[in-house]
Write a structure and sequence with these properties.
The complex is a heterotrimer of chains A (240), B (288) and C (342). Chain A is α/β, with parallel strands linked by helices. Helices cover 38% and strands 25% of the residues of chain A. Chain A has eight helices and ten strands. In chain A, helix 3 crosses helix 4 and helix 3 runs parallel beside helix 5. Chain B has a two-stranded antiparallel ribbon with strand order 1-2. Classes of the chains: A alpha/beta (240), B mainly alpha (288), C mainly alpha (342). The interface between B and C is large, with 49 and 44 residues.
Chain lengths: 240, 288, 342
């Protein structure tokens, strides 16, 4: 198991955002995580990467407990995350943005630029490399976010709701791209609301509800369960 | 180091602290509402002192009686500064805002220097030397009056903020400018009010202390440095925190002076600041 | 025809191009100036160089690092007092004392960094003010060491290059100029290196920067170390140039503010910003002092402050953009093969 999360808990002044969350992710797989809004998925990302410190629990990655480390530490150890609302370096060019990620692996500006160009080419953003990040549309900003994360050459990539609001063609492109990322050897955790995406990508699915794991398993199994969950939650989920 | 000495220092500290509080609350409020750091705040106090001095020197009015008038003058002065200067840099980078107030501070100080010379002036009031003792500590009456005046003014401010529409509007703008516009509040007017009221408070502090402090053009500088320490320690924008912290800092300064001498009093305050921030980056009470 | 040098995509430059030859000419003029100008102007230029140096040093932490430092005088004063006291007590040449001072300034910045690096914005600023003020007050207090408010004079040894003293202003001019060019070179190098890029990212969005592995505290600390070291060196230069230091003149808040102002007025986070800012502010300061000081109380400061207030209201982001535009238009007027972009 590449990542083992054990009994992770986080309270925010009485609100149990994450409570006793336990799951594992194997190397090379794409693990999908779904759950209603406020279920704690993004909080879990924050806890794993060190943006928040958990009240309880452990995060084991490559044989080391990451709890207590700062975000840049976890990134240096190979976990990189994207943000739900993309956070590009707005006044910098696309190329410069990605170089920031590349600098994790090299101190040389020339090399960082080269790696950044390669990464941009991979995510198909190369033509826009000299655009200012703030001038990109939302989709491209997400692509940029992905490129910047990939430039750090992560072992584990955490994608936070990359698929929201895509039209069918953008959707297919995104799915293909994420699969290519996995094919390069990166393990991925995908958090999504778009069920179709989760089903298309995931080797395994985790259902998170009220900060804890509600169900886990192969997509087909969880989907059957999903009907029950939907009934329970009474929410309208997009059907596959 | 007897108990009496420390008790004396404690009492002095509280008396000083209350006056610092009056200055600090205004500074904190400007930050809370207008979101800028006002380096010229000490100069509001200085102007208040000179206005009070002028009234005393020309018309023989006791400084304490000048307080309401000083507050009115300073209110318009402060609102004017906001309206004509600060407003222009509200959308500029923070650095520019800070340096505008720095520039205003230097300008005001030197205008005072130009108009009134560098002479240290003082006011002679009949009760200047009155004292009484409280459990062995000698309390100077002018200082006590200043302290009480500061407390009363602060309470009036609290009333204003909590009970009046203007006060609530200012608090709304401090919390969320955009939303407050949605409910019909004009943030610009609130900024004028906030700076005006803060200036009035600082001016009042000046008028209250003129009976035992010297008046000179750069008198605001030391006050403003201490006020900054207090406002930061009490967490920027937190007015209750500011007043409470003022008392703490006042006492710390007085007690510290007992150990290191009067000339290092300010140094004590700064050391406390740096050490506190090292362990509590958001201030004594703060959340980041 | 001189061979063209390729620099960057699509730009062909040759020696006939004003962009290339004008800076050389300007440098030649600057080198020749002190031999022709009246002493007073040489002095102004030296002060401009000095403030451009400390302004650039400020820029590392304040501009690129995004942390407002209003306490650079702390490092300046440490440099000045260290080299001066070592010279007065042990006869140590200020050339060596300079590095001792800069090193101590660096140590002080280590302390500041360790204590205050989680602070942001006004919190950090007030901490830096506090640091400089504490040092100033301590220097005032320990009179037996530092002569307190009366300050220390540099013992006059005539023309003593080994002791960093010259009877003519011209050597000071060249030392300051050399120091400035080295500093600007350092800024440029850092800008392009990983540290500079990291500082840029942190300034844009610290959380996003951390998410891609940037240790923001470490980067800012490194900027602070560079800043403090250079400022410390400058403090020694100042002491050796004016022959007199006092707590207020080298540790004072006014100095810290002026240092920050130089970069802010010129253009934060740019290589030439502090140079432009220093040119404006120091010319103004020296001129108003010369014209008004001692005549009418406070007038020189009033003029200075009014100018400052107006400048900030008119150009809050600094004048460097405007200066660069003017420079570009000037270059376009000059004869020569102008750069053509393919």
């Amino acid at each position: 198991m590449l990542l083992e999360v054990k009994n992770l808990s986080k309270n925010f002044g009485g609100l149990k955002a994450v409570s006793g969350l336990t799951f594992s992710v194997g190397a090379g797989e794409i693990c999908g995580q779904i759950g209603p809004n406020g279920a704690g998925k993004t909080t879990a990302f924050n806890l794993i990467t060190g943006f928040y410190q958990p009240d309880e629990g452990e995060v084991w990655f490559k044989g080391e407990n990451l709890v207590g480390l700062k975000p840049f530490h976890t990134c240096q150890r190979g976990i990189c995350r994207t943000f739900q609302l993309a956070k590009p370096f707005r006044d910098l060019t696309v190329l410069r943005n990605v170089m920031m990620g590349a600098f994790l692996k090299t101190a040389s500006p020339r090399e960082a630029e080269e790696r950044a160009l390669n990464t941009l080419s991979f995510v198909k953003l190369l033509e826009k490399k000299d655009f200012l990040a703030r001038s990109l549309n939302t989709i491209d900003q997400r692509r940029l976010e992905l490129a910047r994360a990939l430039a750090t050459e992560p072992t584990l990539l955490l994608l936070d709701e990359m698929m929201a609001g895509l039209n069918p063609r953008e959707f297919d492109d995104a799915i293909a791209l994420i699969r290519q990322v996995r094919d390069r050897g990166v393990t991925i955790i995908v958090v999504e609301h778009v069920i179709k995406a989760i089903l298309a990508l995931s080797d395994r699915i985790l259902v998170i509800h009220q900060g804890t794991k509600l169900a886990e398993g192969k997509p087909q199994e969880v989907m059957k369960d999903l009907k029950v969950i939907e009934a329970y939650l009474g929410k309208g989920y997009k059907h596959a | 180091m007897s108990f009496t000495t420390i008790w004396q220092a404690f009492i002095s500290g509280i008396l000083n602290g209350a006056v610092y509080g009056l200055v600090s609350i205004g500074l904190s409020m400007i930050f809370g509402v207008v979101k800028i750091v006002n380096f010229a705040h000490g100069e509001f106090l200085m102007v208040g002192m000179y206005v009070s001095y002028a009234l005393w020197a020309l018309l023989g009015i006791d400084p304490l009686l000048t307080v309401p008038l000083v507050m009115i003058v300073l209110f318009f002065f402060g609102a004017g500064i906001q309206r004509f200067f600060i407003r222009r840099v509200l959308n500029a980078p923070d650095l520019a805002q800070i340096f505008l107030t720095v520039g205003l501070s230097v300008l005001m100080m030197n205008l005072a220097l130009f108009l009134f010379r560098a002479d240290f002036r003082s006011v002679k009031v009949p009760y200047a030397d009155w004292t009484f003792t409280l459990a062995g500590a000698i309390i100077s009456v002018p200082r006590l009056i200043a302290c009480l005046g500061a407390i009363v003014s602060s309470l009036l401010l609290a009333l204003l903020l909590l009970k009046t529409d203007v006060g609530k509007a200012m608090r709304a703008v401090a919390q969320d400018r955009e939303v407050s516009m949605l409910v019909g509040i004009n943030p610009e007017r609130m900024y004028n009010f906030a700076v005006g009221i803060s200036a009035a408070l600082a001016g009042a502090a000046g008028a209250l202390t003129i009976s035992f402090y010297f008046v000179f053009p750069s008198v605001g500088v030391n006050f403003v440095l201490i006020a900054f320490v207090i406002v930061i320690l009490g967490t920027l924008g937190n007015l209750k925190g500011a007043f409470l912290t003022s008392l703490i800092v006042g006492v710390a300064e007085s007690v510290g002076i007992l150990f290191v001498g009067a000339d290092l009093g300010l140094a004590v305050v700064f050391v406390i600041l740096i050490l506190t921030l090292a362990f509590r980056p958001a201030g004594l009470l703060g959340k980041a | 025809m001189p061979a063209a040098q390729n620099q960057g995509p699509g730009v062909v430059r040759g020696a006939g191009n004003p962009e290339v030859y004008f800076p050389f000419l300007a440098l030649l003029v600057i080198i020749a100036l002190p031999f022709f100008l009246p002493i007073f102007f040489v002095h102004i230029l030296i002060m401009i160089f000095l403030f451009a140096i400390v302004g650039s040093a400020w820029n590392f932490i304040g501009g690129y690092g995004g942390q407002l430092s209003l306490g650079q005088a702390a490092f300046f004063g440490i440099g000045a007092y260290t080299s001066t006291m070592l010279m007065r007590s042990y006869g140590l040449s200020p050339w060596i004392g300079m590095f001792a001072g800069a090193f101590l300034a660096l140590v002080m910045s280590l302390l500041l960094g360790a204590l205050c690096f989680r602070l942001r914005g006004p919190y950090f600023a007030i901490a830096t003010i506090g640091l400089a003020e504490v040092l100033r007050l301590l220097t005032l207090h320990f009179r037996s060491w530092t002569n307190g408010a009366m300050g220390l004079t540099i013992p006059f040894k005539g023309n003593a290059p080994l002791l960093f003293q010259f009877t003519s202003k011209i050597p000071y001019y060249f030392i300051a100029l050399g120091f400035l060019l080295l500093t600007l070179y350092a800024v440029r190098r850092v800008e392009n290196a990983r540290l500079g890029n990291y500082l840029l990212a942190i300034g844009q969005d610290q959380d996003a920067a951390e998410a891609v592995g940037i240790d923001s505290a470490k980067a800012k600390r490194q900027a602070l170390y560079l800043s403090s070291f250079i400022t410390g060196l400058a403090g020694t230069f100042y002491a050796q140039y004016v022959y007199f230091i006092a707590p207020e003149s080298v540790f004072g808040l006014d100095l810290s503010i002026q240092i920050a102002l130089v970069a802010i007025l010129g253009g934060v986070g740019t290589v030439w910003g502090p140079v432009v800012g220093a040119a404006i502010i120091e010319s103004l300061t020296q001129f108003t002092q010369y014209a008004f000081a001692g005549t009418i109380y406070g007038l020189e400061q009033i003029v200075y402050a009014t100018f400052l207030v107006v400048m900030i209201m008119v150009r809050p982001t600094g004048v460097i953009q405007w200066v660069q535009n003017v420079y570009a238009r000037w270059l376009a007027l000059l004869p020569g093969n102008h750069a053509s972009r393919s």
